[in-house]
Amino acid sequence: MLLPVNIFVSCLLLTRQVLSDTSCQGQADILLIVDESGSIGSDNFDQVLDFLADFSGKFSVGKDFIHFSELTFSDKSTVVFDFNKYQTNDTLKKAILSTSYNGGSTNTGEALNKARTFAFTSANGARSGVPKLALVLTDGQSNDRSYTVQEAGLLKNSGVIVVAIGVGSQTDDIELKAIATSPSYVYNVKNFQGLDNIIYNVSNTVCRVQTEAAFNVSSLLCFGRKDGDYPPCSSECADGFYYSCVNEVAFKRQCKSNIYVDVNKQSLEAKMVFEPALTSCQPTSQACPRSNLTPSITPTVAPVQSCQGKADILLIVDESGSIGLANFNQVLSFLADFSTKFAVGKDTIHFSGLKFSDASTVVFDFNKYLTNDTLKKAILSTSYNGGSTSTGEALNKARTFAFTSANGARSDVPKLALVLTDGQSNDSKYLLL
Prior knowledge:
InterPro entries: ECM_Assembly_Org, VWF_A, vWFA_dom_sf. Keywords: Signal. This protein is of the alpha/beta class. Among the domains are: 28-219, Rossmann fold (3-Layer(aba) Sandwich), CATH 3.40.50; 311-420, 3-Layer(aba) Sandwich (Rossmann fold). Helices cover 26% and strands 20% of the residues. It has helices at 15-18, 42-56, 89-97, 108-119, 145-157, 173-179, 199-212, 325-339, 372-380, 391-402, 428-431, and strands at 6-8, 28-35, 66-73, 77-81, 132-138, 161-167, 186-189, 241-246, 249-254, 260-262, 311-318, 349-356, 360-364, 415-421.
């Protein structure tokens, strides 16, 4: 009789504690817009770079994940590196810390213009279809407030979400609020030493905004509804939804869990003020215009893995005869789905597969599959042979070979094993050696 499958995963519960602190994942292009004017000084500029390097470490940087670009400004604006240049957390951090300081005036408007007209374009490596965010850090009022406010509006209207940080007593709070997408996206600190005190709040805000913005941001139209306006507390709320507009995009919002759903493209334009997500139906004066169109709903949320960082995870899978081919295929489906909960990549999480019956066989090493899609396909294509249950031999091979450099294991990352079996081993004494 086939025994119940026992899945020993308790050690995996430690993963979040031992992995690196890259706590925000998904997809986004984040531009660092950094004031290097003369009032800052070289020593304080180094503190700014330390803050930005630590800030970048809160995000999972990678080819298919989050990209960063940097733009410095004083008299003029300079792109330090594009979105494609650094696609690991380590190389990005080093690049930020090596940014040179030049001094000069505070031409913030010019920086925002360059962000819109160049930095957030394909020429600078910006991607279409992913959220775009800018973090502006400055220590003083710009040379020309009206120009800065004008360029900030154009940047935000292009679909970029802006967070602003002001350092010291010379900043202009009105200007900072005009730069940021929302007043809640403005942070002020008394001095450069105070930047360390806000790093978690700023990174959490950017992460939350990036996650909420994981919709089709390329569409800038607000769409009508057949029966009139988009009241925020309409009859749709009975089903858990209401309609609203964000940056000229119409959304059907889920009242309870703040899920944003994009509405299909139509031709009715309207400019609306950004509204923070509501956790329940609440009255508001914002409403989209009337139309004879009935929108259809198409979710476009970017894929997100729930566990990131660095680790080598070995799947040790029983393929003994008592399992049978049909049940083995169910095991493979489980493991394939399990693997998708992790951010697999060259500089993040690696998997290796080892199956066992009479003997143990490494199916693929830690370096073989470095994307979630290729890994999932490899797991699902694992062959089944049958035989006895030599679990001790499998654990021996895991120690003496699978978790060594010969199998692609890395020396400086956590190592975890997931053992899946349907029965008692051939020699339980061997397991205790």
